Recover the amino acids of this structure.
């Protein structure tokens, strides 16, 4: 009897291949395909109408899309840099602590333990113009007698969102940079002291190059995170007021699920993935070169 | 260009005192080597001089300045570390010039100083490489170069050769000695290797448990060790020490053999002592140096021989103590062969068995 036998390596990989295909490949291909159709959730038959690159052309010429794209980059740039600076400061401070450092490190992680949705609600309350903590505090302290529209004014709303983002995720940087600080060999630091460096010069010329790889790892992780920012914004401002805090994924989510234009939403989604890919590649390049600097190679 | 003075220098970690009030004066351009087993406080002392460790008590002066509370950068010292401590992200050139750059020297001056140091240490072809691309010996030379570009008052070496292989270590030892001759600066050098200490030092400082056990020129400490600790630490192979009791001008060992109390040593009748004789001073007759004035002879059965070419080390036993002896113009020796040995009494030592202190008069 003829029996076709699969090569053992394929046989062994098969479970993983099947699971990956079902969970990742199929949805991916389906969504890619649907981005070339006028697919609307409310009209399933529209999935079978091929319209070529129409959705992509529409997205690329849509000023709303580009506004959201730009806003996402602004958020990414400001939030990442702030988080990096604050995280670096926090890590440097914590690394100097001799007693209770473990407890501090654990406490530092607390913001990461909350669901972004809850963080969103929390800051929505804090920045609320009527009952919010911030306005009440400012008024009680007599700093202002105005009602500051934190979540209503476009710029202030963006600020509030960035504030919430930074609050949740600074610890990602702090923890990774702290790990970097622990990994620095003691000798070069001492050599620098003997060579005449002040603490600032030691930090600038020795410590910083050593922790750069860790900063870039944190940047790469967080850039992916922020590029897909959705939940905090959705809760705090819902992309409003009048789309002034609309980010890529709140726009895509709205287009896909509220307007039901899934094909178009998918097309925007694929376009914006390039943003994420760009930042990831960029930071990994930086990471590799920083590691090469240190002779860590590979 | 400076002297270094240590006055009652103490180091404590909490309750634990690891350096117990060291007094030491190091002269201008002197090459002083701190030697001792690990944990004897030699590195700690060096790091206190460098300013990398706080001083718990006493004074350290470099030149005429008390430097106790000065940071390392204000002490005008250079240090070479055991693990080289090069800056991995900088090229050799940048590593060498780093301290001058920090000091705000102008580019031309830095370049001249770097070129000069590179020339002294034959690093010129390596200037544009990163430390990761260098061999151990090259890295060590860069570390030394980094130290010399600044023309410091004092050089501090912290076990600089212990990460190198044996051959390279010998080579670098010579380089360090040449370097000292060229640049004429006070050098304080820490090592646990007595050969390095003997070969490099103008003066050896032997440390033990946080105190100075003995100091002197290499030949002094070799010839007149103040204690059994120094006697066994300095010299290779280590000095043979045999337990015995003094009886009528003789030291009698437990198996009944005896040797005369060496000249210039005195011990009370009945005192328990350790008789010290180096391998160089116990040699089989016929394969030995010509006899001197005070000699003794005894028989010993050889249990093992280690031919080294120009000489052979013979292992035997006197009253259950292993003895190493040296045989010149060697011939093959079979284990179990009994030979007659001559002992040069003028070069033998006697130590108190309790305290280990030399009984030299």
């Amino acid at each position: 009897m003829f029996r076709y036998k699969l090569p053992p390596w394929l046989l062994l990989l098969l479970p993983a291949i099947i699971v990956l295909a079902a969970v990742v490949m199929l949805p991916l291909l389906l969504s890619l395909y649907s981005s070339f159709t006028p697919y609307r959730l409310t009209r399933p038959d529209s999935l079978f109408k091929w319209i070529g690159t129409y959705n992509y052309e529409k997205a690329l010429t849509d000023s709303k899309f580009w506004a959201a794209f730009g806003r996402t980059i602004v958020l990414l740039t400001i939030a990442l840099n702030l988080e990096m600076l604050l995280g670096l400061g926090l890590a440097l401070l914590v690394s100097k602590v001799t007693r209770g450092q473990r407890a501090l490190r654990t406490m530092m992680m607390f913001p990461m333990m909350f669901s972004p949705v809850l963080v969103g609600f929390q800051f929505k309350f804090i920045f609320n113009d009527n009952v919010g903590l911030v306005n009440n505090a400012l008024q009680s302290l007599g700093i202002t007698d105005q009602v500051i529209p934190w979540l209503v004014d476009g710029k202030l709303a963006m600020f509030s969102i960035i504030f919430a983002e930074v609050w949740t995720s600074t610890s990602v940087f702090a923890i990774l940079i702290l790990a970097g600080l622990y990994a620095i060999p003691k000798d070069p630091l001492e050599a620098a002291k003997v060579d005449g460096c002040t603490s600032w010069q030691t930090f600038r010329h020795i410590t910083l190059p050593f922790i750069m790889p860790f900063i870039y790892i944190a940047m790469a992780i967080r850039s992916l995170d922020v590029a897909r920012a959705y939940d905090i914004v959705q809760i705090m401002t819902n992309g409003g007021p009048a789309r002034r805090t609309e980010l890529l994924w709140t726009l895509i989510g709205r287009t896909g699920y509220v307007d039901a234009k899934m094909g178009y939403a998918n097309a925007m989604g694929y376009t914006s993935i390039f943003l994420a890919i760009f930042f990831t590649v960029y930071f990994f390049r930086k990471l590799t070169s920083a590691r090469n600097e240190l002779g860590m190679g590979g | 260009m400076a002297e270094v003075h240590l006055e009652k220098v103490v180091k404590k970690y909490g309750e634990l005192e690891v350096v117990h009030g060291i007094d030491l004066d190091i002269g201008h351009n002197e090459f002083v080597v701190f030697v001792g087993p690990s944990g004897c406080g030699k590195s700690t002392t060096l790091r206190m001089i460098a300013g990398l460790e706080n001083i718990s008590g006493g004074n350290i002066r470099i030149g005429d300045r008390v430097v106790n509370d000065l940071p390392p950068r204000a002490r005008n010292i250079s240090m070479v570390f055991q693990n080289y401590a090069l800056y991995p992200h900088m090229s050799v050139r940048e590593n060498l010039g780093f301290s001058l750059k920090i000091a705000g020297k102008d580019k031309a001056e830095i370049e001249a100083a770097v070129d000069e140091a590179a020339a002294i240490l034959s690093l010129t072809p390596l200037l544009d490489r990163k430390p990761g691309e260098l061999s151990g010996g090259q890295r060590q030379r860069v570390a030394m170069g980094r130290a010399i570009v600044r023309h410091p008052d004092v050089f501090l070496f912290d076990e600089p050769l212990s990460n190198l292989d044996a051959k390279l270590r010998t080579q670098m030892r010579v380089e360090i000695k040449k370097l000292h001759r060229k640049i004429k600066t006070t050098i304080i050098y820490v090592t646990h290797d007595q050969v390095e200490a003997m070969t490099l030092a103008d003066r050896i400082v032997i440390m033990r448990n946080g105190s100075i056990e003995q100091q002197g020129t290499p030949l002094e400490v070799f010839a007149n060790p103040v204690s059994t600790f120094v006697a066994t630490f300095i010299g290779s192979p280590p000095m043979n020490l045999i337990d015995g009791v003094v009886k009528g001008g003789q030291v009698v060992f437990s198996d009944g053999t005896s040797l005369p109390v060496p000249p210039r040593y005195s011990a009370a009748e009945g005192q328990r002592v350790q008789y010290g004789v180096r391998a160089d001073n116990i040699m089989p007759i016929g394969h030995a140096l010509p006899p001197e004035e005070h000699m003794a002879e005894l028989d010993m059965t050889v249990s093992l021989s280690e031919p080294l070419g120009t000489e052979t080390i013979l292992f035997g036993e006197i009253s259950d103590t292993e003895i190493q002896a040296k045989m010149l113009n060697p011939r093959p020796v079979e284990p179990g062969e009994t030979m007659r040995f001559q002992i040069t009494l003028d070069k033998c030592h006697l130590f108190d068995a309790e305290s280990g202190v030399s009984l030299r008069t």
About this structure: The longest helix of chain A spans residues 63-96. The two ends of chain A are 51 Å apart (CA to CA). Residues 52-109+170-293 of chain A form a domain with the MetI-like fold fold (CATH 1.10.3720.10).
